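Hey Z.,

So I finally got round to the zinc ion thing we talked about over coffee. Here's the setup:
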Amino acid sequence: MLCRIGDVEVWRILESNDPFKTPEELFPNAGADVRDIIERHVSGACCAQSGKLILPVQGFLLKTPDHLILVDACVGNDKTVPSTPDWHQRKGTRFMDSLAAAGADVADVDYVLCTHLHTDHVGWNTRLVDGRWVPTFPNAKYMLPEADDDFFSEHAEVLYSESVSPVVEAGQSERVSAGHMLGDYVSLIPTPGHTPGHVSVLIKSGDAEAVITGDAIHTTAQLAHPEWHFKYDMDGDQAEASRRALLGNAAERNQRVLGSHFALPSLERIRAKGDAFEWDAD
Ligand SMILES: [Zn+2]
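And the result:
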């Protein structure tokens, strides 16, 4: 178990933890010293050989007293992603092994929530069986942020047909927007910008709160530099505003922050510092 938030257990479902792209490419407005700044905040953040930022791809399994909820479904196996060779037609076992290590069977999962509909968050929605894409989680409701569903159904034909359409056609999908609750402990926070319908996830149990960022933020260094845009933010200014609001709320409410792509263990408490934030080492 990664952590407990009141009555909710949080388990990390790790698919990969590999070098991705260089910091200079990923944070285009961060300036020439972006690599040094990231390394100062997170030692070992970049691969010594390639210089690329190491980017975990992970979901989080939430065990509430009532439900099993998977937040984000990583890249998946056999998917068509030629733009990212490491993700193209993967044949990995780590995601399913992590799920088993958390004591969960695919049939046990009640909800799959995609924070947004990018490749590395929807992959295990489906798997290839006898040449057909079928829902990986046969009894789950798949929660799709509706503004993303609108956009990606129009603009990402391969991704949508492999990883989203099969759960829609199986009658297992539900379009949701910010404010939606999944049971009594988990709700969706609006963090648009990275994608139009991007949501982050609030876990609340008694006085304990945590937030799963999704792709509202990508590295601990962005706590100090929330103005850094990410290469794949569709609307960088809106993403920055969402990031600042999310972090401001997390600092104010003393929430634990689960950074979906933060260096492992991807778990921090933060506090405000000037007009930015810092990791609260206490
Ligand atoms: Zn991502």
